[in-house]
């Protein structure tokens, strides 16, 4: 069976006046219809990896790979137009902050129905029904009311759910969620994660869940990739987290506060230059 996604030796580089910045330095992994976590500290190349898969690398960035294949489609050789038609329809990305992804001047309902109608020929009435059903699926209690609101009229948690509804309305096969909950408070975070989890298992989607929170990712994913300085330093089954071998992964685990444990100060990660080699 062809995997949903194959990434081989992915590199993302940015030319600058002082030389090349290598944001992603040879990342390889495969994804089936499963939940894969990508963790690593800020700046380790997680978002740049997700964006390269989406085809959303800023134009001055240089993306190369030996293989970048989605469901049998060679993403490196298709046209920008073909890439655009995959985006939203078959591959979707949820970003950290709904403020930057929702259009402030368009009602939530209209944004969701327009996304659907870009990818599928459906009547206005059917689009509305499906948008309302999707809002309900992401546990918005009063979908008819929220449908007519603008993004600034809802809370951050509700905006995040509306964005997930918008990303899922066309039924993507692959969802890339880039720190989708880190702007939310803890209880809302868990709600949003549960919603995504249910939708992933009900719809059989592949999910790439990007986060800097190793414990959160492993409680929620099947497999975890740990990135450091643009490279994968370790890949683990989530259930094997406590057997992590790489000192960076172990460091990430040790630096996380554990409820009920009183450690002052928290240990600070002591980075070794050879990790980035
Ligand atoms: N537009 C850009 N131009 C130049 N360098 C960039 C750009 N975007 C990201 N980078 C570089 O890529 C590195 C990885 O960024 P990113 O993937 O956003 O990290 P993460 O999501 O893991 O926090 C950053 O350290 C930065 O140096
Ligand atoms: Mg990021």
Automatic annotation (TrEMBL):
Q: Which SUPFAM superfamilies match?
A: P-loop containing nucleoside triphosphate hydrolases
- Any Gene Ontology CC annotation: plasma membrane
Q: Where in the cell is it found?
A: Cell inner membrane
The GO terms this record gives for MF are: ATP binding; ATP hydrolysis activity
- Name all ABC transporter domain ranges: 5-254
* A family per Pfam: ABC_tran
Magnesium recorded as keyword = no
Q: Name one GO biological process term.
A: transmembrane transport
Predominant place of localization: membrane
Residue stretches in coiled coil: none
Q: Does this UniProt record's set of keywords contain Acetylation?
A: no
Q: What is the top-level taxon of the source organism?
A: Bacteria
- Sorted UniProt keywords: ATP-binding, Cell membrane, Membrane, Nucleotide-binding, Transport
Family in the record: Belongs to the ABC transporter superfamily.
Report what the protein is called.
Peptide/nickel transport system ATP-binding protein
Organism this protein belongs to: Rhizobium leucaenae
């Amino acid at each position: 069976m062809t995997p949903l996604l194959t990434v081989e030796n992915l590199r993302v580089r940015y030319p600058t006046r002082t030389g090349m910045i290598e944001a992603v330095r040879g990342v390889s992994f495969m994804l089936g219809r499963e939940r894969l976590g990508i963790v690593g500290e800020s700046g380790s190349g997680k978002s740049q990896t997700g964006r390269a898969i989406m085809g959303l690398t800023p134009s001055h960035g240089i993306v190369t790979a030996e293989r970048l294949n989605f469901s049998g489609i060679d993403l490196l050789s298709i046209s920008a137009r073909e890439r655009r038609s995959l985006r939203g329809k078959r591959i979707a990305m949820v970003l950290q902050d709904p403020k930057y992804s929702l259009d402030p001047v368009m009602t939530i309902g209209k944004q969701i129905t327009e996304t659907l109608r870009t990818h599928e020929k459906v009547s206005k009435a059917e689009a509305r029904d499906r948008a309302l059903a999707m809002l309900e699926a992401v546990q918005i209690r009063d979908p008819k009311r929220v449908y007519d609101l603008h993004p600034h009229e809802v809370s951050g948690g509700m905006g995040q759910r509306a964005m997930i509804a918008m990303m899922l309305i066309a039924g993507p096969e692959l969802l890339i969620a880039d720190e989708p909950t880190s702007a939310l408070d803890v209880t809302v975070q868990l709600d949003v994660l549960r919603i995504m989890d249910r939708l992933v298992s009900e719809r059989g989607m592949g999910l790439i869940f990007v986060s800097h929170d190793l414990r959160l990712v492993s409680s929620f994913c099947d497999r975890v990739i740990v990135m450091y300085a643009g490279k994968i330093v370790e890949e683990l089954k989530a259930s094997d987290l406590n057997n992590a071998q790489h000192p960076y992964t172990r460091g990430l685990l040790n630096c996380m506060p554990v409820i009920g444990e009183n450690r002052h100060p928290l240990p600070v990660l002591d980075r070794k230059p050879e990790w980035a080699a």
